Amino acid sequence: MGRKVFVVGVGMTNFEKPGRREWDYPDMAREAGQGALADAGISYDQVEMAAVGYCYGDSTAGQRALYEVGVTGIPVVNVNNNCATGSSALYLAKSFIEGGLAECTMALGFEKMERGSLGIKYTDRAIPMQWTFEKMNAKRGFTAAPPAPQMFGNAGREYMELYGVKPESFARIAEKNHRHSAANPRSQFRDVYTLEEILAAPMVHEPLTKLQCCPTSDGGAAAILASEEYVREHGLADRAVEIVAMSMNTDFPSSFESDSDMRFVGFDMTRDAARQVYEQSGHGPEDVDVVELHDCFSANEMITYEGLGLCGEGGAAELIDSGAVTYGGRWVVNPSGGLISKGHPLGATGLAQCAELTWQLRGEAEERQVEGARRALQHNLGLGGACVVAMYEKASLA
Questions:
Q1: Maximum CA pair distance of the chain?
Q2: What is the DSSP secondary structure assignment for residue 210, as one 8-state letter?
Q3: What local confidence, expressed as pLDDT, does residue 117 receive?
Q4: What's the CA gap between 128 and 263, in Å, rounded?
Q5: Cβ atoms of 103 and 73 closer than 8 Å
Q6: What's residue 284's pLDDT?
Q7: What is the pLDDT of residue 237?
Q8: How far apart (Å, rounded) are the C-alpha atoms in residues 392 and 277?
Q9: Residue 60 to residues 12, 54, 65, 80, 90: CA-CA distances in angstroms?
């Protein structure tokens, strides 16, 4: 661990269905980036380095996007780490400050997506998730369902087989997140559904119905990071939220050597990244008030409860069934509505999580505010080998 790093400004567009309005990725970047600068109360010429994340775009699209915010000659690094792209950009922007290369940085993420489920873009070269697909196919075969819900649905099936979990428990996760999103004006979906409606929605890949799957989305998000010296010098202590610990890792041998559907989709990455964050921060899950985790499908939220240590082995269904992960419970998980309902523009997701947790710790989350929130946990996962976990605290810089 190097120098302390603080989030001093965040910005985010609405997350929207692809094609719903006439805008392009530079428009998303301008809106999110200018919003983060305004939130911090600084100008773009004070930003010394930037990391820009996106999955679907040409090389240097990050520069084109950032030029909408300013053209100042700073280093701009493009980041592509599948669904963990936004938090990977955040990790890099934090590292610039932590390592003493800069005092103030920006992490920006955006995605302009196509409608429909994600598919394979390049068919004339090796598929990044080839090893994972081969393992999954050998165990359960491939169906006509899109690959992502198959992979995470199979992880849910394994959890059901191991611990006797019922489909209703997965549906309760979706019910919770759709309900939470009703209070989020930036959410792609704001409809509330009953448990029965979620269970009755079209089946995508058992146990996942359509309302338990994240949508494709357009949108952008950004964060301004600063060193402690910068925060003090510019009088930003009242806006500052400290990233007290952050870990990023890739797959382990167990991801490919085991015969576990949960490990195929990154359970071990989650568990190890969380362990590192708890060790770095000196705080465990019992010290956290609010969590934004990667619920691309309800099955992944289920297994991530265990991966983050919110429960013991086989205890995830009890958390959701008992109400422990919503308002009035032990934690509030995905107060934003999560990926399932807020939306999932890949490059922006991790930075939208950062924005939500920053607002929560500042007490600025309006109707979805978690009362008394002082410490927060972020989890962002990218298939193919990327997981980022971070711990945030309201800064004490008196």
A1: 59
A2: G
A3: 67
A4: 17
A5: no
A6: 98
A7: 95
A8: 10
A9: 21, 10, 9, 11, 18
Length in residues, the chain? 398
Is residue 246 within 8 A of residue 283, CB to CB? The reply is no
Decide: helix, strand or coil at residue 81.
Answer: strand
d(CA 192, CA 341): 10
Q: Which of 292, 362, 340 is nearest to 90 (CA)?
A: 292
Amino acid at 30: R
| Cβ(298)–Cβ(340) below 8 Å | yes
pLDDT of residue 190: 96
Would you give the distance in Å from CA 331 to the centre of its chain?
Answer: 17
Intervals of the chain under pLDDT 50: none
* pLDDT value at residue 119: 66
Which pLDDT value is given to residue 121?
74
pLDDT at 115: 77
Which of helix, strand or coil describes residue 44? Answer: helix
Q: Within 13 Å and on the Cβ side, how many CA atoms surround 203?
A: 7
Interatomic CA distance for residues 383 and 81, integer angstroms: 8
Q: Which tokens in the block code for residue 372?
A: 């008394």
Dihedral Cα 30, 32, 33, 36, nearest 10 deg:
150
Is residue 163 within 8 A of residue 321, CB to CB? The reply is no
Q: Which residue has the tokens 């196509």?
A: 114
**What stretches of the chain show up as alpha helix (H) in DSSP?**
25-40, 61-66, 85-98, 130-140, 147-163, 167-181, 195-200, 228-233, 254-257, 261-264, 267-281, 298-307, 316-322, 338-342, 346-362
Q: Are 361 and 394 in contact (CB under 8 A)?
A: yes
Question: For 12-22, b where at least 16 C-beta lie within 10 A, e where not — what string?
Answer: bbbbbebeeee
Count Cβ atoms within 10 A of the Cβ of residue 320 and give its class: 0-12 exposed, 13-18 middle, 19 or more buried: buried
Q: What is the pLDDT of residue 398?
A: 62
For residue 34, the model assigns a pLDDT of 98
Q: Which two tokens stand for residue 72?
A: 């100042």
The per-residue pLDDT for 1 is 58
pLDDT in tens, 146-202: 889 999 999 999 999 999 999 999 999 999 999 999 999 999 999 999 999 999 999
